[in-house]
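HUMAN:
Sorry, I am quite new to this. Are you able to go through these amino acid letters and fold codes? The numbers rather puzzle me.
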Amino acid sequence: MSILKKEKEYEKVPTKELINEKENLDVPVSYSYGYGIRHVQCLLLFFCMTIGYIARAHLGVSIVAMTNMERVKNMNSMVNSNVTINDTFKNVIETIRLNIINATDAVELRVNETSFEDEEPVKSIWNVFRTYDWSKPVQEMILGAFFVGYCLMMFPTGIACQRYGGKLPLQMCLLINGIISIATPTVAVWGGWKAVYGCRVLQGSTQAGLYPSAHSLLAKWVPISERATLSGYVYTGTLLGTVLAFQIAGLMASCAAGWPSTFWVTGGLCICAFTLLTIFGAASPADHKTISDAEKNFILGRIDDGKKKTLRMPWKHVFRSKHVWATFMTHASAGLCFVFFLTQIPSYMHYILGFDVKNSGLLSSLPYVACAFATMGYGVLSDFCTNRGYLSLKAARIICNTLAQAGPALCLVAVSYTDDSALAVFLLIVALGLYAGIHSGWMVNYIDLAPNFSGSLLATGNTFSTLLIVTQPILISNIVTDVTNQKQWRIIMFLMAGMIFFSNALFVFFMSADTQPWNDIVEEEDVVTEMTEKR
């Protein structure tokens, strides 16, 4: 009887302590944890994203100070006498610059003060403070060079993030951007606009890894209960960086050091971010030296066994997954929507509503400020509702994404019918505020579907989005042949709204918030090694 009694005792449901003992774990499973190392990592990512976007966006303002305005105006008066298809692209870039430059007058004043026509030129050919006679098309080529490299290297850098983790590509991005930024004023003297073009292509190539790297690191460091909140905080850095870039460039261009100081300061910030990431950053909780077992347990759901497995990208499963394609589709349309608001709506407001965007830099920054606060709000509310059980994870993703897609689409339609510039600005602020929901919608859904491959998935979706964005000016140039014709603008806005609604419908019907089975596929050699160790 005593033997039978003993056997029954061993058949009891194991407690947490027994499970831990059986799995050779020293601490119990954690279900909650306060502030810790993961917040430091997210703060580092926020700083890196902010600096990355400053390096990306400041040239829109800096190029005004780099150019001899009087000579270029004379050259442009001759160029503009012939209308070509490039006018569409020139209008796009011009509206971007008019929308973002708050300190244009100060910049032009600084350029005029240092003009070689008014002052005796410095004898040295290595004078980096000089201004250049770059025509309007040349300026546009320089401004667009970043996205040439960005588009070409997006997919390869996604694979690199998958292979080497998120930290190394992000380090390379910041270091290379920092060195190139510091060297650009000197390179411009040596090679002219072609050398600056090459610098921007290289910067775009390395920054193609910015989002995939951040996404890969978030997938490793952020537990599912904090996924939307911490992701929202990190990606707020992109919006802050955009606003700061315009203000810093205007301020630096009007100071004693002139426009080169913008490149030097930006380069210094990039190297500073690289140094902080190198010292304090880690690719995963398992690689961090000071993280506690309790926090590691909370992030991973278990104590890491210390074994690193090489994961291969399961492309066959990825491209056969309707859930992934639903996310790709809404990703592409969201990118198209944002670029349309950024580049085309200012033109519409200028030509149709007579809105003076040049003298309203602060007003033009309001949509980005609204988007930044809304990004954090979406994340907090999404995690609050899912953690309290008010919404399922899938429902939260669908609601956030629908608000982010349907809201801007409706605002587009409304803008096409208004004649009031104040109302148009209000609609733009509302649209970008609602658009912030993408960070708690399709963007974080990549991590939901496959935490191990989230960086590569995001890079793939970004590639599709960029290819679609490249075709946008062609479509617009064939529909909006007269920029003062409101009916033509209305057609393109309805097309954009229809595309956004369609892609969001696909996301609603086919998305999933469950981790896919192919997330844990490992290389065959790792499986063989693991079996050998067990024997």
Summary: The radius of gyration is 26 Å.
